[in-house]
């Protein structure tokens, strides 16, 4: 779509009409990966034309100007070409920066899948990604940080070896690793939940199961980080996974 001017115009026009039809406040583009070296430059063109169309439509409309945002990769450097940061800065109201998925794709070792920091790594981690976006020229005030309301579960090889990086045989994300399910179905008064401030993640073991997730401490630490970094804000995936608003309230009062 993005590499053809006719297709871009059709997409832009239909998206604006749809937003007005359902009384949306704005539009959010999901663009995390690219398939060719031309995709990212074409994304830059798309964003400019989209914002121009939104601005023109607002002048001829009684409604407020539509917001235009995008969900992007955790880092602006993405093979086979980098994100068009200058165009993003000029034409988007803000971006939702995703987490780094690489840590969840390591089934042989436990990890901190939603870690704020990743000691020893120069590639994957929330702070690494956000810092890379800022260093590439994107204003911190255009960055919205990801907060996970879910975790990930590994199966330990040896339950006695159970820290971050412990040998494991499998990893899974899904319904049972939602925050609500973790708190209600896994954790009891006798469960020892560890908060690792080096990564900013909570984890615990139950038999051979090893589960990493964000509890109140991690959420508060990350919100404090977002404020100190001067970010626009944070977004939760997803509010429905919360447990009687525990995480949302922790974020709100930080």
Structure description:
The chain has 254 residues and is of the alpha/beta class. The protein has 2 domains: 5-148 and 216-252, Glycosidases (TIM Barrel, Alpha-Beta Barrel), CATH 3.20.20.80; 152-213, Roll (Chitinase A, domain 3). 33% of the residues lie in helices and 20% in strands. It has helices spanning 5-21, 39-59, 85-91, 126-135, 179-186, 216-229, 246-252, and strands at residues 26-30, 67-72, 94-97, 143-148, 152-156, 168-172, 194-196, 201-206, 209-213, 233-237. Strands 1-2-3-4-10 form a 5-stranded parallel sheet. The protein has a 5-stranded antiparallel sheet with strand order 6-5-9-8-7, with no helix packed on it. It starts with a helix and ends with a helix. The model has no long low-confidence stretch (mean pLDDT 92). Residues 1-254 form the GH18 domain. GO terms for molecular function: chitin binding; chitinase activity.
């Amino acid at each position: 779509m993005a590499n053809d001017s006719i297709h871009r115009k059709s997409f832009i026009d239909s998206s604006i009409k749809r937003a007005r039809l359902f009384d949306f406040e704005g539009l959010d583009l999901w663009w995390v990966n690219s398939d060719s070296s031309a995709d990212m430059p074409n994304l830059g063109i798309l964003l400019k034309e989209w914002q121009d169309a939104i601005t023109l439509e607002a002048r001829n409309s009684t409604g407020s100007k539509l917001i235009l945002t995008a969900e992007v990769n955790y880092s602006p450097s993405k093979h086979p070409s980098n994100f068009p940061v200058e165009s993003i800065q000029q034409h988007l109201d803000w971006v939702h920066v995703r987490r780094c998925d690489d840590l969840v794709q390591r089934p042989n070792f436990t990890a901190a899948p939603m870690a704020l920091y990743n000691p020893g790594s120069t590639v994957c981690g929330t702070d690494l990604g956000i810092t890379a976006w800022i260093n590439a020229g994107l204003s911190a005030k255009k960055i919205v940080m990801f907060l996970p309301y879910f975790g990930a579960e590994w199966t330990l090889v040896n339950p006695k070896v159970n820290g971050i990086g412990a040998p494991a045989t499998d990893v899974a994300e899904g319904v049972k690793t939602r925050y609500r399910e973790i708190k209600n179905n896994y954790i009891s008064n006798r469960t020892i939940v560890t908060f690792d401030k080096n990564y900013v993640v909570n984890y615990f073991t139950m038999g051979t199961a090893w589960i990493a997730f964000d509890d109140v401490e991690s959420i508060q630490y990350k919100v404090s980080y977002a404020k100190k970094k001067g970010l626009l804000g944070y977004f939760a995936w997803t509010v429905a996974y919360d447990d009687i608003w525990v995480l949302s309230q922790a974020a709100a009062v930080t």
